[in-house]
Design brief:
It comes from Quillaja saponaria (Soap bark tree). With 481 residues, the protein is an alpha+beta fold. It contains 17 helices and 15 strands. Among the domains are: 86 residues, Beta-clip-like, CATH 2.170.270.10; 150 residues, no CATH class.
């Protein structure tokens, strides 16, 4: 712990323990929006490989892949990644090669992550791989497992997974209880590794980053540059302030967020947003994000349940919506949603888009205009339209999501920046250079804070903005002539 504190001191950080929260990361100097607070390589990580999508174990890229000839499980994009991973994979390869073809299929990313954890511990203890203050197994041991808070069904699952790892490793000294506890640590502490557009690529364990606590109103953001986890400030973090990130999707009511945190991370959040639960502002926001719209389509008021429980009253104009009318809409909507999710061998993109547009029209009659459910449906339509390269219709749906994004993703949030980027690209595809510049500029304003400016993703965005500006300048000069 002293070595870690010394290493963090150089970065203007320190660890303090608070009774109700455990370990916390505090700033010992000021950090400003866009500044890197801390970055860390994973102690162990695995790509989310499946039968349909594989990635390089070294860099997580998906091009020019070749399967390891020994284990037939792991993929590499080239000799450089293979060599950099060889110290660890040579042991893993021998272990996986012992398994028959059917048993290799049971080696899921979670099982591989655990196997690699113990192999890395072994290699560090033998000094084959060096240990440092921020990269050693004792940091993993210090992580919270919440094992006493887990229900019996989950404990049984962890025990089964632990037994499988023990059978694969064939190390008699490892105890099932210890393995099960480490699986619980993964559930509470591992991070989903994403690309610049926040698409999931794999899972990694970052023991120092895991010390950072959650807030639904965070002052920093976690993004990934390749496999490296990078935490950047998204607001001024003054000396003595705790560094906070968000563990979950923050769009949604306090009750929705609290439920997600309790189920996944086994704690109750007491951040500035969550302590307002039950207060008027929180009730209002919940009714807007997850409640019903006013019967008067020109009114943007929110509805609350009447005292006699027979309906919902608009808090702006006083109009009532009958409970049975809402129930009828909700039933019709559920039937449509179930139909859309039902697999169909002859379904095509156009049919699926038509189905989701029907759902969206019905949701507009039922839900508040800022409804999260309505936004999510529009995102599904947007994604399908993008796949069909129907840029004009896609732009319409992209713009419809922006007001909700701006409401639920406060401050410098990467999801808001990425949605601005989508609008900018669509405008550009349609030849609307001026509008493209407006949206791309908004995207840069957000993403330069959350992503920095040196990643390939950000370089592409900045290049797109510059090309759009050159194109706009050329069009103006052509008109002048």
């Amino acid at each position: 712990m002293e070595d870690l504190q010394s290493a963090l001191k150089e970065r203007n950080l320190t660890i303090s323990t608070i009774a109700e929260k455990g370990r916390c990361l505090f700033a010992t100097g000021d950090f400003y929006p866009g500044e890197v607070i801390i970055s860390q390589e994973p102690y162990v990580c695995v790509p989310n490989n499946s039968g349909f999508d594989s990635r390089c174990d070294g860099c997580f890229l998906s091009s020019n892949l070749k399967k390891c000839s020994g284990c037939q499980v792991v993929w590499y994009c080239g000799s450089e990644c293979q060599k950099s991973d060889w110290n660890l994979h040579r042991l893993e390869c021998k272990i996986l090669s012992r398994l028959d073809k059917d048993k290799r299929k049971s080696v899921t990313p979670s099982i591989r992550l655990m196997i690699k954890l113990y192999l890395r511990r072994k290699l560090q203890s033998e000094k084959v791989i060096p240990s440092t203050a921020t990269d050693n197994y004792s940091l993993v041991e210090a992580l919270v497992a919440h094992i006493s808070d887990i229900d019996e069904k989950q404990l049984v699952l962890y025990a089964q997974m632990a037994n499988l790892v023990k059978l694969i490793l064939q190390w008699p000294e490892i105890k099932i209880k210890e393995l099960a506890e480490n699986f619980s640590k993964f559930a509470c502490n591992a991070h989903t590794i994403c690309d610049g557009e926040l698409r999931p690529l794999g899972t990694g364990l970052y023991p120092v980053i895991s010390i950072i606590n959650h807030s639904c109103l965070p002052n920093s953001v976690l993004v990934f540059e390749g496999r490296s986890a990078v935490v950047r400030a998204v607001q001024h973090i003054a000396k003595g302030t705790e560094v906070m990130i968000s563990y979950i999707e923050t769009a949604g009511s306090t009750m929705t967020r609290q439920k997600a945190l309790k189920e996944q991370y086994l704690f109750t959040c007491t951040c500035p947003r969550c302590i307002k639960v039950g207060q008027y502002d929180d009730i209002r926001e919940s009714a807007i994000l997850e409640g019903y719209r006013c019967k008067d389509e020109k009114c943007d008021g929110f509805l609350l349940r009447t005292s006699d429980d027979k309906g919902f009253e608009c808090q702006q104009c006083g109009l009532l919506r009958d409970k049975e009318e809402i129930k009828k809409f909700a039933t019709e909507l559920k039937l449509l949603e179930d139909r859309a999710l039902r697999p169909s061998p002859i379904a095509n993109h156009q049919e699926t888009i038509s189905m989701y547009k029907m759902i969206e029209r019905l949701q507009r009659k039922l839900f508040h205009p800022f409804s999260i459910a309505l936004m999510q449906t529009r995102e599904k339509v947007l994604k399908l339209l993008m796949e069909l390269e129907d840029w004009r219709d896609a732009l319409v749906y992209c713009k419809l999501t922006i007001p909700v994004y701006e409401r639920v993703y406060l401050g410098f949030h990467p999801l808001l920046g990425l949605q601005y980027y989508s609008c900018g690209k669509l405008e550009w595809f349609l030849g609307e250079t001026g509008e493209a510049i407006k949206w791309l500029s908004k995207a840069v304003d957000v993403l330069r804070i959350t992503h920095g400016t040196n990643t390939p993703f950000m370089k592409d965005l900045l290049m797109n903005l510059e090309e759009a500006r050159v194109e706009a300048s050329y069009k103006r000069s052509s008109k002048d002539e």
